[in-house]
Specification:
Elements (H helix, E strand, L loop, with lengths): L2 H15 L2 H10 L7 H6 L5 H9 L9 H25 L2 H4 L4 H10 L16 H17 L1
Helix pairs in contact: 4-5, 5-7
């Protein structure tokens, strides 16, 4: 096999292995190859340097491809957009035309897709309510 054929087949294999969302992002970024990187960066609103810094903070990562940073940034934006829209539609956002923290916390708790965020987005609780529940737990432990 020539180098070009080998490279082409490995790209096809990688595209096959990637999830649908990432493949879609790859197609979006490769739509117009004559456009420069500045045009691609304009479609992203999150700071790429911050995403790169977060990715490099992992001890397992030694180097990061620019395409990987771009795709990770775009995927993060799409995820945040999906979370916000789900929270807005299922919460009180429609009536008030706003999105609150409690809407995000409720979505994280009630929606299986976002359930992994419950530790990051816990429901707010008043201090007096927390103290009451803490006292109840201590009383239950004392009963045993």
């Amino acid at each position: 096999m020539r180098k070009e054929e080998k490279r082409h087949s490995s790209k096809q294999y990688l595209k096959f292995r990637l999830s649908g969302a990432v493949c879609l992002l790859m197609k979006m970024s490769q739509n117009n190859p004559e456009k420069d990187d500045q045009t691609n960066k304009k479609t992203i609103s999150l700071p790429i340097s911050r995403v790169r810094l977060i990715m490099k903070s992992s001890p397992d990562v030694s180097s990061i491809n620019q395409d990987a940073i771009f795709l990770t940034t775009k995927a993060t934006e799409l995820f945040v957009q999906h979370l916000a829209l789900s929270s807005f539609n299922s919460g009180s956002g429609k009536e008030t035309n706003s999105l609150s923290y409690s809407d995000l916390a409720n979505t994280a708790e009630e929606n299986d897709t976002f359930h992994f965020l419950t530790d990051i987005l816990p429901k707010k609780i008043l201090a007096r309510d927390y103290l009451k529940s803490l006292e109840q737990m201590q009383e239950e432990e004392a009963d045993f």
